[in-house]
Amino acid sequence: MDKGQKFYITTPIYYVNARPHIGHAYTTIVCDAIARRKRMLGYDTFFLTGTDEHGQKVERSATDAGKTPKLFADEISSLYRGLFDRMKISYDDFIRTTEPRHQRGVQELFRRLKVKGFIDKGTYTGQYCVSDELYVDSAGPGAPCPECGNPTETVSEENYFFKLSAFAEKLLEHYQKNPNFIRPETRRNEVIAFVKSGLRDLSISRSTFKWGIPVPRDPNHIVYVWLDALINYCSAIGFGSKNEADQKKFEHYWPADVHMIGKEIIRFHCVYWPAFLMAADLPLPKSVIAHGWLLFEESKMSKTRGNIVRADSVIDVLGNDALRYFLLREVVFGSDGSFSFDAVVQRYNADLANDLGNLASRTLTMITRYFNGSVPYPSPTVARKPSDDQIKEQALATITEFSQLFDEYHLSRALEVAWSLIGSVNKYLVEQEPWIVAEKEGEEDRARLATILYTAAEALRIVTALVHPVIPESTGRIWNQLGLGEISRFDLKDLKWGQLPLGGKLGKVEPVFPRADKSAVERMQQMEQERSTPSTPPSSPAPAGEGARPGQPATQAAHGPAEAAPPPAAPAASAADNKITIDDFLKVELRVGQVKFAEKVKGADRLLRLEVDIGTEVRQLVAGIALAYTPESLIGRKVVIVANLQPRKLRGLESNGMIVAASAGEEGKPVLAGFLEDVPIGAKLK
Ligand code: MSP
What we know:
Elements: E1 6-10, E2 14-15, H1 22-40, E3 44-52, H2 56-64, H3 69-86, E4 93-96, H4 100-115, E5 119-129, E6 134-136, E7 153-162, H5 168-177, E8 182-183, H6 185-196, E9 202-203, E10 205-206, E11 214-215, E12 218-223, H7 225-230, H8 232-235, H9 244-253, E13 258-262, H10 266-279, E14 288-291, E15 294-296, E16 299-300, H11 311-318, H12 320-330, E17 337-338, H13 341-371, H14 386-407, H15 411-432, H16 434-437, H17 443-467, H18 472-481, H19 519-532, H20 555-559, H21 573-577, H22 582-586, E18 590-600, E19 608-613, E20 618-623, H23 631-634, E21 638-642, E22 648-650, E23 653-655, E24 658-659, E25 661-664, E26 669-672, E27 684-685
Parallel strand pairs: 1-3, 1-13, 2-3, 3-4, 8-14, 13-14, 15-17
Antiparallel strand pairs: 5-6, 5-7, 7-9, 10-12, 11-12, 15-16, 18-19, 18-21, 18-27, 19-20, 21-24, 22-23, 25-26
5'-O-[(L-methionyl)-sulphamoyl]adenosine is lined by residues 12-15, 23-24, 26-27, 52, 229-230, 232, 261-262, 265, 293-294, 300-302.
């Protein structure tokens, strides 16, 4: 890479029809982690986010709230910006489509398309989905939108049309020549199939409402909100401006290297957007990456479904890094992933408080205690053992593997690799027992102790640098405690074994991830309930200094630092390995059940309500398998259920147990567990 090579990454711009939720935070966090890594690698990085403020959907939400669209957009946009600031998102610019610089860009694009002969006037009569701001050619009057299921509305108006049909061949050629243009592969195939099925010209103006950017020379029309929105990626970096510095900026950063989007807006980004750019003679973005959805209670988190969780609840209780780590580690990037408060707390305690937190505090506390806080000199010869070299080898391999995986957007796998190094070092400490070696008096023992602690500290340094883009606040603190100063100045390209300065003074050793106690889940749930009660006004972002301080979850106050202080001796190896004992397993009561009744849950496209006979009783279960199984196909089928789960409510229905299914393929399609031989109802699995 040339020094200073540019990297331009964007999030979608978020509709201001409703307040931000964790789904929006997810995309933004993913981009933030990627941007931070690129900066650490020396790229001249530009990270753009912002809000999409025009269109019928926003206009209607404003009317419902009794506000003007502009005032409404101002309020919601500032909630997004406030949340991103609170989350310490490292965006370089935040564009609002109501800004004059954006209006200039939209009108410039419209003019160019017109001049090049790709715009004509016509009449659109057909269906329109306001929720997706999408023309739905395929649906008849009254039909639901094939994308989101919301009712479509019949529209008949004079519009400007873009000659999309002229671009089918060129688009297909572009996809073929640039296999990385659309990722992942499944989405690429979807787009290719869509284009091959034929492209119709696209209406790019509306004339029956006013909330938008006027069409140049024809102010009775406003520009279609998607044409308006997409050009934000260019207008934010100077497109449409007459100012020379802006034009230079545009030339420097455009084309974007990555447009990160949710999978539902792939068509806009991979068909319409490249066609607009081709028509305007502008270069195409290098890649569009579509991630999956964050599900809550088994379906896509969204305002319409009313199953929203806000980022604030997790941040208030566990801190920014807990949310970031959870989302990047738990959701297989590209696939859908489920969010639950329990899972966030479990991940936080297991991976952050236990694995990384213990490694850092044990290693650093022992260096402080036994070497007066100076990084000890490892022995090159006598006090060296093969296990020391194994850690070194694994750390070197981790640098390579983590980098490859992360740069290919296998984010959760990259983190797995990093945590596997953490696990090995924790195990190494357990096996080498430095606290016992420290009690011996011999010179060789002292050298052995130095080698063990140096090895652990150096591996800790490497893993800290690698995962810094994912958990920036806590790794910044660990880096400081290692005596290395400001982590963001570290040049990740040079990361190798042996850079920890020998004799270097450690900083003050303090716990970084205090354990979250049992009340954490309840507190988050309660905050969520309070935030979602309609009487609560939109929560303003907490001013800096209020609520949880960065990296200092609220649980710390409840527990005191002692909770997270390094244990004098090592925890059991099983905890470090993340393995459970047979007793743990036996706590789970798995039973064979037979489905007696099944039906769809109203308003939740993924959920089925089941009545399952488990021998002793018939249980009601709510399961997220409706996309894979019809209710009829399940009646009489024998299934495996977890019988001793605490009941929980989904869509107001109590679910008393969980049905066991494999999660297959990238989409995580559920496949029910079953038996080849016949088994009696109620039989226990062990
Ligand atoms: N305004 C358009 C995008 C225009 S880009 C030129 C839009 N906005 S949106 O607010 O509805 O959604 C924007 C993005 O938010 C999605 O593409 C996705 O990245 C993210 N998400 C919204 N809900 C989500 C989940 N439940 N899960 C994961 N991401 C989600 O579409």
